[in-house]
Structures are given as structure tokens and as C-alpha cells.
Amino acid sequence: MKIYLDGKFVDEADAKISVFDHGLLYGDGIFEGIRLYQGNVFRLEAHLERLWYSAKSILLNIPISRPEMAKAVCETCRQNGLRDGYIRLVVTRGVGDLGLSPWLCPKPSVIIIADKIALYPPEYYTTGLAIVTVPTRRVGPAALPPAIKSLNYLNNVLAKLEARQAGALEAIMLNEAGFVAECTGDNVFIVHKGRLFTPAAQQGALKGITRETIMEIAGSLGLPLEEHDLTRYDIWNADECFLTGTGAEVIAVVKLDGREVGTGKPGPITNRVLAEFHKRVLVEGTRI
Ligand code: PXG
Fold first, then answer.
1. Per-position DSSP letters for 90-102, written without gaps between them
2. pTM of the full predicted structure?
């Protein structure tokens, strides 16, 4: 595998970062996860926009331009002969000293990895997921704006561990006020009486690009959709629930906290949205 590292393509074994990189020492950096479908990069511009917003938020100067980054992403896919896969774009603060000071890190590092994707095991796309609400709350905007896709994922890692301890693959994370924020790596939607609802990003969610795509799909299918505060009660009593994310795509939730959601099987609206999503990813995108 060839990895893009600071303007060069290097073998996987040589793709190394300093132990003084603040991405490692402090989680000081940002990232994106992007999908490649049949030679097309899905919503590349939206991912780059979010990366640049994350960078600006943490006062990180990405050392290459956006068009150069787009080219580098496509070139990394080509170098690895990929037609379908997952692209991980990372920008770290770079090498500094052992202190926190980011201004002592003169050169941010850019890493692009393009590889095959490990989705949820395929059977869960037909059966749906049984998930749980975990005790760890989503970090709120007063501490760290959740829209920043930073290398600080410990909050989500803790939640993921708690899900696993409960025998689940994903976790509902609440915000400090007890409203549903999102999952550890996915946004949440419910269907109630024919209407779609998803928590507003302000409740503590990442502004997911798959989420955005689903909102567009709902519009094109004529399904009413609202950003609305949700509690666990709303999911327990929803007709359908599904999660969205670059890795997961669209996956049904059929149980939350031991309560069956709807019929306990992926519902018709989830399946319609999923089918439309699969159509879109094949026709949209930036040709590598
Ligand atoms: N919320 C969080 C916290 C995320 O990290 C999403 C929502 C979905 O956003 P997109 O733009 O992908 O629709 C993410 C996605 C994983 C994994 O292994 C997921 C993400 C990052 C790293 C790993 O599930 N991000």
C-alpha cells in the first residue's frame, strides 16, 4: 500500500510520523473519512470544506491548497489501484516540543490513506442493529465544538467501549441536558408516523455528510424531515430508527436499551432511503 505523506507517496512500512508530533502527543489535529465508490470520490468537496472548517477552528494552517488536496486524494486512490474503498485524510499539528504550545510546531503533516473499508458485518444490514445508550455524554460546544472533526476521539472511544461492554456495536450518546446527540461515529434519524426527525447539530452532533445526503434524499422522496430535539423516549417509541455515517452508510436500529424499535425489523422508510442512497453514491462524486 502507498501512503501519501507530506507530498510524497511512501510504502506503508515507511509511512511514519515523529513521536514529537502533537497529533500523537495531544490529539492536536483533524481528520476526514471519505468513501470511494466505483472510481468516484463521494462528496469530496463537502469533506474538504469540513476539513478546512475544522482547521480554521483550531488555527491550523493546512500546508497545501484545497485543489492540491483534492488531487492528492484522487492520486492516492489511483496509486493503490482502488475503485472502491475508504480514504482517511489526517492533518496533524506537526512536530513540536513536549509542551502544549501549538505555535512551536512549524509544519503540519498531511497523511492520506486509501484502503478497503470494514463495514459493520453484512448481516446487520438486513437484520438491523441492537444498540444501547451509554453513560458517557457527548462533549458539548462549551468544551469542544462537536462540529470539529478533531483527533480527540477519546469521548467517543469511551462510549464505544461502554457499548461493547453491553454487547452492542454502537451507542447512543446524549448531551449534558439528556437529549440525543449522535452515536460514536454515526448520526441518528428516527421515523415517526411517516415523518423523519434528526437532532440538530447544536445538540452535540458532528455535521455528518451522510446525514446531509439523507436530508436531501428525504426532500427528493417527499418525506417530511425536521431537525428536532430527541430523547431516548422518542427512539424507544419510533416506528423506525437508522444511523448514517461514511463508514456505516445507512443502517437500521431495531432495538435500543432492550426496547424493540417499531416492528423490530428494518422498516420500509429506512429501506427506501437506503436504496436511494446506494443509487446516489454510484452517480455522484469526483472521478479519480
Ligand atoms: N458523528 C461522528 C462523531 C463521526 O465521527 C459521523 C457522525 C458521521 O459523519 P459522516 O460525515 O461520515 O456522515 C462521524 C463519522 C467509524 C468512524 O469507524 C466514523 C467516523 C470517523 C472515524 C471512524 O465508525 N466519522
1. EEE--B--SSS-G
2. 0.96
